[in-house]
Amino acid sequence: MDYKERMKELRDTLNAHSYRYYVLDEPSISDYEYDMLQRELANLEKDHPEEITPDSPTQRVGGMALTKFEPVTHAVPLESLQDSFSDAEVVDFDERVREQLDHVEYSVEPKVDGLSVALEYRDGVFVRGATRGDGRVGEDVTENLRTIPSIPMTLPEKLPRLIVRGEVYMAKKVFAALNAEREENGEQTFANPRNAAAGSLRQLDPKIAAKRRLDIAVFNLQLAEGRTFATHAETLDYLRAQKFKVIGNKVVTNVQDALAEIRRLGEHRAELPYDMDGAVVKLNSLTDREILGSTSKVPRWAIAYKYPPEEKETRVTDIVVQVGRTGVLTPKAVFEPVHLAGTTVTNATLHNQDFIDEKDIRVGDAIVVRKAGEIIPEVVRVLKDKRPDGTKPYHLPERCPVCGARVYRAEGESAARCTGAECPAQLLRNLTHFTSREAMDIDGVGPALLEQLVSTGLVRKASDLYSLDVQALAQLDRMGLKSAQNAVAAIEKSKQNDLSRLLCALGIRQIGAKAARVLAQRFGSMDALMNASVEDLTAVDDIGEITAQFLRDWFAEAQSRDLIESLKNAGVNMTSLETPQDLRFAGKTFVLTGSLTRFTRDEAEALITDHGGKAAGSVSKKTSYVVAGEAAGSKLRKAQELGIPVLSEDEFLTLLGGEAAGETTNGDKQLELFS
């Protein structure tokens, strides 16, 4: 079998398994087997990029980021529905329909709470997807929709043109996991699955949308050139045959049966994988729909029944604080048990101090709770008229409840964080960063191994890595003697890393690889850096007062000093091996503009920073020099207006002593430029 045949076989196999997994929920192979097949296809596509097809499973990871969404005029308007909130309103709708029709059939369906989109296919190939927008004009979100595994890229029947309408949603369990992750990281959580789905689908970077694991429920056939159908139910059956993930429906012949189905759906909505905010009753006959038509806003042949939100009253018995793996403190209200959406709940997250202050939640308060997205308990409001005497406003602790380190909340942030370098709650996350490529770069010691090391108690802080035994490592899952030997060797090798890598590995706020290198070069040793004052630190380019204070506060913590001492005792290098010999640009800020011919922009910026200077992106009164290449524009004009020295590339090379291009040093010119 040649590579073309194998690639087609892999595409067909993977798409078939993807359909079974994402649409039918009946996987027939393991995730590992699927991943191995996809890796084989990806490798073949790497060698033969001309053979990549639109329906390849490898194309669902997200392409290049967009700068904006283009408008799309819908071929068939995506109408909204008239809402109803009682049985009587549904009965009134039925009476209006029967005034014009003798025989009526209704299709009753769940109303998925998501973002409505239109999917367009040409000759059986997915070519474009757009949001509903105002119903007539939406936004082109094709690249984001490609990342949704349940949307088929090609169809069995190759109609000239087919448009379907569906609801993009985020499954409840995905929503819960996403919000938990965002809360761990101190990010704002989504209010409900619909907001999460809408925000994800409208990301300009498709890779972000791909990570959000969106799904779709198709509920209407908008256009099918070359096909005719009599009923809505027939169109749904057809769409199922075309491999779409189609909404379930029930056909009834009278309004009482429609109401019974609405009630049944409402009773079971907690069991559905998606958030459902109502049920839709629509005429089954497509001809009857044409007869009734639409108003200027809504179709006359359909109505949406909205379920009232289920809310219960309970009482707060305690507020407890959890510390996440990123050090974020998350308060949680513990309350008297209450039955909501099919389960008994006893607590709800309070997110942060701002949330508590806004609602004024106190221990002892009577509160109203509900489930966001039918899954996550949340406090809706406090019943202050039922507040007991003697309650006090709640404030997060000033010390971490896990390790006792100081709690810090940065200005402009809602999250309060533990500053403990050895906090057990943050251990796994800290170790993962410590061993990462940009930090200590310990090959073979990844998250899976670290998780085992933490869970078995072999590692309780970063310095414990340096006392690991080969035999102990070899006993862990998926290790073996050879892997254990390689891991221990990589850990031992990391002892000789430059100080800059260690500084980055410590996870101090705002100290990434670049800042760590600058600090290591300037101070030379860990001891010198630990003893530096805020004034000493802010004298270093790229280190502002906030970053300097972060450093001072971190080193002031007992846990931080203990960690540094234990790493010293383990033999980890504490000195800089990259101290520059030439700091002629110290204290100078350069701005590059125009097209440079002697070197790239990145090379020029590296020369500046390697000689102690700072490369900035915009001109200000603090700019020391502007280096102007060909076709320099607004930055050059601003420099001239401010009287800032402008250097040609040759003059810039003179400052460097000619080393960048092998030129001769002109000492007089250098002195003149720096005067």
Describe this structure in words.
Strand 21, helix 23 and strand 22 form a beta-alpha-beta unit. 36% of the residues lie in helices and 19% in strands. It is built from 25 helices and 22 strands. The longest helix is centred in the first third of the chain and has 20 residues, at 3-22. The radius of gyration is 31 Å and the shape is globular. By secondary structure, the protein is of the alpha+beta class. It starts with a helix and ends with a helix. It folds into five domains: 3-60, Helix hairpin bin (Helix Hairpins); 81-306, DNA ligase/mRNA capping enzyme (D-amino Acid Aminotransferase, Chain A, domain 1), CATH 3.30.470.30; 312-386, Nucleic acid-binding proteins (OB fold (Dihydrolipoamide Acetyltransferase, E2P)); 419-579, 5' to 3' exonuclease, C-terminal subdomain (DNA polymerase, domain 1, Orthogonal Bundle), CATH 1.10.150; 589-674, BRCT domain (Rossmann fold, 3-Layer(aba) Sandwich). The strands form six sheets. Strands 2-11-10-3-9 form a five-stranded mixed beta sheet. A five-stranded antiparallel beta sheet has the order 14-13-12-15-16.
